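debug: dumping io for the single-chain case to check the tokenizer round-trip. Nothing else runs in this session.
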Amino acid sequence: MGPKFFGVAVQRPDPELVKKSAEIANREAMRYLSSQITRHLSLRFQGPPLPQTKRRTPDLSKDFLETQVLTGFFKTSYKDQLARKFAPDDVNFILRVGRKFPRVRLGFAYFSLLAVDDCPEEAMHLCELQGRTGYARTSIPTKMIQVVADHQEGTERLANMLFSDDPEFEDIVLACRYHDVAEAITGDFSKYCDISPRDRKRIEKLAFELISPENAPNLSQQAKDIRRCYELTCGTDPAHKEVRAKFKDCDALEMPMEVAFLMTQKLSVNRVQLMDELEPFWKSAESALQYSRSKNFFKVLEQARYRTDLKPESYDDIVNIAVEYMRGCEAGFIDSGMEQDSVVEKGSPRTSGAGSISQSVVQFPMRKP
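debug: decoded output
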């Protein structure tokens, strides 16, 4: 029996497949990190930038120089650079994890070279390049593999659809918007990666700290929001318990949302095989959902995947039907067979008004291919 994902036991895949999927998910981000580190080092330590070429074929001499610059940095200056940012125990921990995961090493190396003010923006950019490892393990075409930025945006979309009337709505949205930003530095660890939950949590905490240092003066608003996100999603303050639980529902539900999106696309893959590959995503999400709104929303997504008439324009319809079903269940017009989340009387600040939810669907556009 393999590890548990959102409480569901899953079969561990072939180690070579795990390795290959990580390579696919990390490829674009690692290319960017390598080139940016080399550029920074060339400007700061090695004199003028590396020569450019007008040749149409790859410039092997340039690649060789870049490799030499990176190798030299990791052998000589990298540890000192980390020591400027972290305590000795944390430095040794980062080095140890980086030896096992080159993606982690490149991430910490690059962000250790950046000015504090530049870190949040660069982190968000890297989220647009970092693939999600779980999808890279399927037959989904590489160009269609979800990136971290899409996942965060999808999670925020769900917060708008599920909890727009919640008194802590702004915190829920903030938690969704930045919850995986540490993966700009660490990459997306899958549940099969050879790293313990404790070490994963620690390395991601250090990544958050590098992006938004706790003691740095005059942090930008975005950096403050990222730090606030960490407190909401990873902290232990009981005051944030409800925010954390609702964020987790949005995070889990985004998986079947993405799967529903993929199933409506004209992918050049075997549909039956793809449905089989994506089955764990449905089971994991279903087991993790806590609120009746989320469970009712999930019901519509789960049923839609068996349709044989799906096409790209079907996605928006499916999501809007899910919202209407969720609203109908909560209003008592539809019997979903489950107890609904408690709501206060109409007219209070926390009214679960249909208007607020349906309006959020109109104002928050669906993801497009």
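debug: round-trip ok. The two ends are 36 Å apart (CA to CA).
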